[in-house]
Amino acid sequence: MAVYSPSGSGSVHIDILLTNISIQFPLNSDYVGQYLFPQVRVAKQSNKYGIFDRENFKLEAHDVRAPGDLANEIPGLRWSTDTYYCNEHALQIAITDEERENADAPLQPDIDGTNLVTDRILLGREKRMHDLATATANYATSPSNMFQTNSGTTQWNDYVNSNPIQDFRTGIRAVNAVMFRSPNLAIIPWQVMSMLEDHPDFIERIKYSERGIITEEIIAAVIGIPNIKVPSVGFSSAGTGVPVTSATVGYLWGKDVILAWTPPAPGLRTISFGYEFVWPLGGNEMLTDRWREEPRVSDVVRVRRRYDLKMVGGESSNQELCGYLIKSAIL
Fold it and tell me: Does residue 73 contact residue 60 with C-beta atoms inside 8 Å?
């Protein structure tokens, strides 16, 4: 007969929450949208920015001046304007006094609540960047198509018939043909990269090298693009109040590849695939503030970011020339 009853109020152990372990799916951290849309801080919520055309490429054959004659006078640069408007994106969460006082370690309502709304703001921003960058309607079709859509045997999971290196070359040539410099950034989603790592085209290129394993650096060297980003960002389509377990969870960046030119830093007369116009809040790109709501017996934490996303790599809106899109690179 045991000294203590093995169950009920006389049990020698009452279950409590462990303080050295808890379970959570990995947080998204490898966001890549900011590389396609470098940040531009602006002083006003809305404004205009100038867009110069490509008159500097125009060859003038009539530049010979005879003695005593006037030099041939040419028209000046043509330019237009576009606008931005920085909408505020904000989310908040209430932290009640009851949950704060009742929470056992390792639960931290203030920290967990702040992290939750911050992650949601950043994930929404990443999704908007993705949606802009992967829409064929945003790419120019003249002087040539700045996008292609793979299907069937041209998709890179077909190791016999597809030719990803040629597809990369086609995109690089298309960008170079209009801006006379090659893309310096490639967004290759994780699903696509995992296929390329076993593709015979790349394996054939490196089989005599010292490194027999395909890496991002090797692919960068083969295709001639110095900066490769491989996002593995997940998201759920669950609506407000719907648990994630009741909705599809998948890769945010999917199966589309983007080749782009972005500058080392934004500036005057500087073209880029895109820009994120950010109207800072008290000098901060994102602001976390907190206040007391006594009728709710709660503190409220809010995270805000004010921004507008623009694809600016063309002479008119939504006519991207500084990038090339490969839709459905794999099945």
Answer: no
Indicate if the alpha-carbon torsion angle 183, 34, 140, 308 is positive or negative: negative
Is residue 22 pLDDT above 50, yes or no? no
Q: What is the pLDDT of residues 108-148, one digit of tens each?
A: 888 889 888 999 999 999 999 999 999 999 999 888 899 99
Q: Give the orientation angle of helix 216-223 with respect to helix 164-179, to 10 degrees.
A: 60
Among residues 114, 87, 89, 104, which one has the least CA distance to residue 300? Answer: 114
Q: Which domains does the chain have, with CATH numbers?
A: 36-54+79-238+250-327 (3.90.1690.10)
Distance CA(49)–CA(53), nearest Å, equals 13
Using alpha carbons only, how large is the chain's radius of gyration in Å? 27
Q: What is the pTM of this model?
A: 0.86
Query: Rounded distance, CA 158 to CA 152, Å?
Result: 8
Cβ atoms of 225 and 186 closer than 8 Å: yes
The helix/strand/coil state of 206 is helix
Q: What long-range pairs does 114-117 form, CB within 8 A, spacing at least 24?
A: 114/288, 114/301, 114/303, 115/27, 117/91, 117/92, 117/93, 117/301, 117/302, 117/303
Q: What angle do CA 30, 36, 40 make, to 5 degrees?
A: 105
What pLDDT, on the 0 to 100 scale, is given for residue 90? Answer: 95
Residue 157 near residue 200 (C-beta atoms within 8 A): no
Cis peptide bond prior to 143, omega within 30° of 0 = yes
Peptide bond into 164 cis (omega under 30): no
**Beta-carbon contacts of residue 208 (< 8 Å; ≥ 6 apart):** none
Please check the confidence at residue 212 and state whether its pLDDT lies above 60: no
Which residue do the tokens 């692919």 mark? 219
State both tokens at 254: 């999917």
Judge whether 240 and 200 are in contact, CB under 8 Å: no
